[in-house]
Design a protein that fits this description.
The complex is a heterodimer of chains A (about 160) and B (about 290).
Chain A lengths: L8 H16 L4 H4 L5 H12 L6 H15 L5 H22 L2 H25 L11 H23 L4
Helix pairs in contact in A: 1-3, 1-4, 3-5, 3-7, 4-5, 5-6, 6-7
Chain B lengths: L1 H15 L4 H31 L3 H38 L9 E6 L11 E4 L12 E3 L4 E8 L4 E5 L6 E6 L5 E6 L6 E7 L9 E4 L11 E9 L6 E8 L8 E6 L28 H8 L3
Antiparallel strand pairs in B: 1-12, 2-5, 3-4, 3-12, 4-5, 6-7, 6-9, 7-8, 8-11, 9-10, 10-11
Classes of the chains: A mainly alpha (about 160), B alpha+beta (about 290).
Chain lengths: ~160, ~290
């Protein structure tokens, strides 16, 4: 995984592991419906920061882990996160230059896309439609994006991940 | 994109057939450390609480448990005589009767899954001979059944999940029907009860054992409300699950077809003699049909 000029792959793995943990960590009842899509956020960050290292393949494998962890249909999140990673890679040159709040809006769109794709899949297999607050995690994700961005950026700089 | 196609194929396979159940089981080993890590803070705090408990607390606890045990034992004595009587009567009627399923105590892991699905993770897996479709109970009633089994953990679906249906009967008069999950943790729906059926609020619903998956006679829910709408063929009946679906930590896993003796780690075994002709009579198709409603 660590090639000559690449450095600090461990940091990326650790951030994904933490994101996966946060995905299933117990929360109080009222906060359960607000849980941001941690894996999606971390994936978007690394796709923006290191598009040559983290990409569609990472998105797919992390998505598969999310599927296993949350007991959803195998491949549901894998597909959604693959597409999210792909779009982020397409957009990364532009989004990188945005101010943080504008990035947050882009992230909102990507997170909603992730949720929409999973929703399609679960509707397709015949689960009932969720209530309106199904979309709350995306909003929570948007609000938390600046913090994620700053935290991961300082992490990346201090460990010189490249 | 290749990967998208691959995931779609995976989803199809996962949804349509159960071919990749073994793949899922194998891969679930990968996420087991994550689940353990999530579980750890709670386990540590529990350990601290137990080891730092005062002598007084322990004594009080012990005393209350002792009285409880005494009471349960007294009930148990009565139960045993009733059981033998029941078996004798059933032998007179030439019907086989099964008592004493093998059970195993397991614990839920504090892992929060998708809030729109009622699923839980259990800390026992294939190594404890858990199998998909196995019923799980808590102290008050039926909780659900196992859907995915990994080597160390398994995932179970609760009776209130919208994809779950459970054959039940009214304890008072034996009306059989099907209880569907409603998606709300405190509500089951019974949509197939005719308008003229004798059912009223307060009736206890127990598993009927039809379908062959759940052992008969375990409490499932208490009927909460019955609404008769003359324009509809069926009454709208809702019931409240008896099991503490979102509060129980300790659960019981039941082997309905297994009347063998105690294994290590299993508890709550009644050692009643059982007649030899005890195969589950209900075919597997019926069980599959009741497992999920399309």
């Amino acid at each position: 995984m660590i090639l000559g000029r690449h450095h600090g792959g461990g940091v990326i793995v650790v951030t994904f592991v933490i994101a996966l943990l946060l995905t299933v960590a117990p929360l109080p009842e009222w906060a359960r419906y607000l849980r941001p899509d941690w894996v999606g956020l971390v994936l978007i960050y690394w796709c923006l920061a290191l598009p040559d290292r983290v990409g569609v393949g990472t998105g797919w494998s992390v998505g598969l882990l999310v599927d296993l962890l949350t007991g959803s249909l195998l491949g549901q999140h894998a597909m959604a996160l693959t597409i999210v990673a792909y779009l982020t890679l397409k957009l990364h040159l532009r989004v990188r230059l945005f101010p943080v709040w504008q990035q947050a809006l882009t992230v909102l769109v990507l997170l909603i896309l992730h949720q929409l794709l999973s929703l399609w899949v679960s509707r397709f297999i015949g689960r009932p439609g969720p209530p309106m607050y199904y979309w709350a995690p995306s909003l929570a994700g948007m609000l938390i994006w600046p913090f994620i961005y700053i935290a991961l950026r300082s992490l990346r700089r201090s460990f010189r991940v490249s | 994109m290749l990967l998208v196609t691959l995931s779609i194929a995976l989803m199809m396979m996962d949804h349509r057939q159960n071919h990749i159940e073994s793949l899922r089981a194998g891969l679930s080993v990968l996420v087991y450390p994550l689940q353990l890590a999530i579980e750890m803070p709670r386990a540590v705090s529990e350990w601290f609480r137990e080891s730092l408990a005062t002598r007084r607390e322990l004594q009080e606890n012990n005393a209350s448990l002792r009285t409880q045990l005494l009471m349960l034992k007294a009930q148990g004595q009565k139960l045993q005589s009733l059981e033998t009587e029941n078996i004798r009567l059933r032998e007179l009627l030439d019907s086989s009767f099964k008592i004493g399923e093998r059970v195993l105590v397991a614990e839920l892991m504090s892992v929060n899954l998708d809030p729109y699905k009622h699923q839980v993770v259990i800390n026992k897996g294939e190594l404890d001979k858990i199998y998909p479709g196995q019923p799980i109970l808590d102290a008050d009633g039926v909780m659900g059944q196992v859907v995915h089994v990994g080597p160390y953990t398994s995932t179970a679906i609760l009776i209130t999940d919208t994809a779950h249906a459970l054959p039940v009967q009214v304890n008072r008069n034996g009306i059989r029907t099907i209880a569907l999950g409603s998606g709300a943790i405190n509500r089951l729906e019974l949509p197939y009860i005719p308008n003229n059926a004798d059912i009223q609020p307060g009736d206890l619903l127990v598993t009927s054992g039809l379908g062959g998956r759940f052992p008969p006679g375990y409490p499932v829910a208490v009927v909460q409300g019955v609404q008769h709408d003359p324009g509809r063929p069926f009454a709208a009946v809702v019931a409240t699950p008896s099991a503490k679906l979102n509060r129980s930590r300790e659960i019981l896993l039941v082997w309905p077809d297994d009347t063998s003796t105690l294994e290590t780690g299993s508890t709550g075994q009644t050692g009643a003699p059982s007649p030899p002709e005890e195969q589950p009579v209900v075919p597997e198709e019926a069980a599959a049909a009741t497992e999920e409603n399309p």
